[in-house]
């Protein structure tokens, strides 16, 4: 005897997924500043401290004014040649600009980063005597 096959599909219900425990909410880790932002801020701060215009510095550095503006705003990643030209136009060396940017990076990230405290473990080594 043959058993007739039904035209309807057989549906097997799936069990609902078990509820996952909610992850504890933590504040998102702040992003480290980009190097181009730091360098741009240093160039702008130095230019403004000298009360010079973008045009004046761009002309002295032989850089286009729009490009120097984008470098100062952190929109462009300037080459070392462009940074050196802008630094020299401001009466600084490339090392001065990079040092000031590094100081700014250290200042910004030192507040967020706390030193990792390692637990003190007494030495339980072996002492060999002859």
Oligomer: single chain
Overall spatial form:
flat
What's the main sheet like? Answer: none
The amount of helix comes to: 40-55%
DSSP strand count = 0
- Class by alpha and beta content: mainly alpha
Uncertain runs with pLDDT below 50, 5 residues or more?
none
The first-to-last residue Cα distance is 94 Å
Radius of gyration, Cα only, in angstroms?
31 Å
**What's the rounded overall pLDDT mean?**
83
Q: Provide a count of the helices.
A: 5
Tell me the series of helices and strands, N- to C-terminal: HHHHH
In terms of DSSP E residues, the strand content is: under 5%
Written overview of the protein:
It is a single chain. The protein is mainly alpha-helical. It is 46% helix and 0% strand. It is flat and about 95 Å long. It starts with 34 loop residues before the first helix and ends in an 18-residue tail after the last helix.
């Amino acid at each position: 005897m043959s058993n007739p096959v039904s035209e309807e599909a057989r549906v097997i219900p799936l069990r609902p997924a078990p509820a996952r425990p909610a992850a504890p909410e933590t504040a998102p880790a702040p992003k480290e500043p980009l190097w181009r932002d730091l360098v741009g801020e240093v160039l702008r701060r130095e230019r403004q401290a000298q009360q010079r215009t973008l045009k004046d510095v761009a002309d002295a550095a032989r850089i286009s004014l729009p490009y120097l503006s984008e470098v100062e705003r952190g929109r462009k990643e300037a080459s070392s040649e462009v940074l050196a030209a802008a630094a020299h136009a401001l009466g600084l060396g490339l090392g001065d600009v990079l040092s000031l940017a590094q100081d700014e990076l250290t200042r910004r990230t030192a507040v967020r980063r706390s030193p990792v405290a390692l637990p003190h473990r007494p030495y339980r080594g072996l002492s060999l005597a002859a």
